[in-house]
Design a protein that fits this description.
The protein is an alpha+beta fold. The protein has helices at residues 119-148, 215-227, and strands at residues 40-41, 48-49, 56-57, 60-63, 66-75, 83-91, 94-104, 153-159, 171-180, 185-199, 203-210. The chain is built from two helices and eleven strands, in the order E-E-E-E-E-E-E-H-E-E-E-E-H. The two termini are 36 Å apart.
Length: 236
């Protein structure tokens, strides 16, 4: 833990926590897709609107000149807050599967700095805490991937800016080599996990992408992440 977490007016950060959205918690925006009473695949014909955030998963679209099509939508909880949508995208190197997820930040913390705390120190420390919690979420998702794909080999990992450069939204990307379970080709292919934390202060947006074969695939993915599921306006 950096010394700045333990010293001076920022000391509260070592034991304090992040305020995510006051005391009331998120509300379900108008126009959101009906919520299943239990986890399962969602039979939705049009765009799926995530309860709580208002972020939307369209049925299809175009990214960097390539058409993407939604294959499935899955609800992982009984409140419609933890969902994902799978998309198939043709690329010059074959089909690419992009799985986009929205789910709550794991823990809601309460941050109460002392009255004399310096505002700049508060902002810095809050940013450091957010980055650390996002890194911990990245580690959980890395282990999750390895549980399903023990053959996966880590290539690199690091920080990345969110698709629209949102302030206070730390992002991480992890790149692996793993089996091409999408196209069932022989050998290993590049597979990536992108995690963006504290979107609208409450949500994590994650992408799992396989395979990412070339620069054309990279361009399609970058354009896709700017659109899905970030296009729906933040509920007021």
């Amino acid at each position: 833990m950096p010394k700045s977490f333990r010293a001076g007016s920022a000391r509260w950060c070592a034991v304090g926590f992040l305020v995510l959205a006051g005391c009331a918690g998120p509300r379900t925006p108008e126009g959101s897709t009906p919520i299943l009473s239990q986890p399962g695949e969602v039979a939705v014909q049009g765009r799926y609107v995530h309860a709580g955030s208002g972020m939307a998963f369209p049925t299809d679209g175009t990214a960097a000149g390539s058409r993407f099509v939604r294959v499935t939508v899955t609800q992982f909880d009984d409140k419609g807050r933890d969902v994902s949508a799978n998309y198939d995208v043709p690329t010059p190197s074959g089909r690419m599967r992009i799985s986009a997820y929205v789910y709550p930040v794991p823990l809601a913390f309460a941050l109460k700095p002392p009255k004399e705390a310096d505002a700049a120190a508060v902002r810095l420390s809050e940013g450091l805490i957010r980055s650390e919690l996002c890194r911990q979420e990245q580690d959980r998702r890395k282990q999750e991937l390895l549980d399903f794909h023990p053959e996966a080999r880590l290539l690199r990992e690091g920080a990345i800016r969110p698709p629209h450069g949102e302030a206070g939204v730390p992002g991480n990307v992890v790149t692996y080599e793993t089996r091409d379970f999408i196209n069932n080709t022989k050998g290993l292919v590049r597979s990536e996990i992108y995690i963006f934390c504290y979107v609208q202060n409450l949500w994590i947006v994650k992408y799992r992408v396989t395979p990412v074969q070339d620069s054309a695939s990279e361009a399609i993915l970058a354009d896709f992440m700017r659109q899905v599921p970030w296009t729906s306006p933040t509920p007021g």
